[in-house]
Amino acid sequence: TIIGIDRLDYTKGLPERLRAFEALLEQFPQHRRHVRLVQVAPPTRETLPVYQDIRREVERMVGQINGRFGDLDWQPVTYLHRPFPQDVLARLCRESAVGLVTPLRDGMNLVAKEYIAAQRPEDPGVLVLSRFAGAAEQLREALLINPHDVNELARTLDR
């Protein structure tokens, strides 16, 4: 499982992330039915048109990917548009193989650090992190990517 946890915000790179996940399933069909993306995207600033637009775009893309690649027994993307308690988010991070943090621009980005902190030492997940996140300077063990390069991100997820 790949986990993404971000406010539903246009700076977080959610459409780029979904395009890359779709490219992963398209270019590397061996991952179909074996990998899924769980995207937790709590609402934020819902009265502003730009945030309404990003929500519509993300929900359209999730439907498109699930419709194209999913079947009765498997949906590639689980999209959760609501907040969760921190202990639930930590469990989701711990149980995932990959943490995907792809902001187009960001400050420190605590989600990246929270993903690392939630891991079990005997079986840690891998953090795939935008090089445009401030945390990229500190988290050198992460796989750093350009979130604008969908194919690079798909290839990184294939590793």
TrEMBL record:
Entry's Gene Ontology BP terms: trehalose biosynthetic process
Superkingdom of origin organism: Bacteria
Name of the protein this chain belongs to: Glyco_transf_20
Annotated organism of origin: uncultured Delftia sp
Cited Pfam families: Glyco_transf_20 (PF00982)
Protein family (similarity comment): Belongs to the glycosyltransferase 20 family.
PANTHER family, sorted: BCDNA.GH08860, TREHALOSE-6-PHOSPHATE SYNTHASE
Gene3D superfamilies listed in its UniProt record: Glycogen Phosphorylase B
Gene Ontology MF terms in the entry: alpha,alpha-trehalose-phosphate synthase (UDP-forming) activity
SUPFAM superfamilies named in the record: UDP-Glycosyltransferase/glycogen phosphorylase
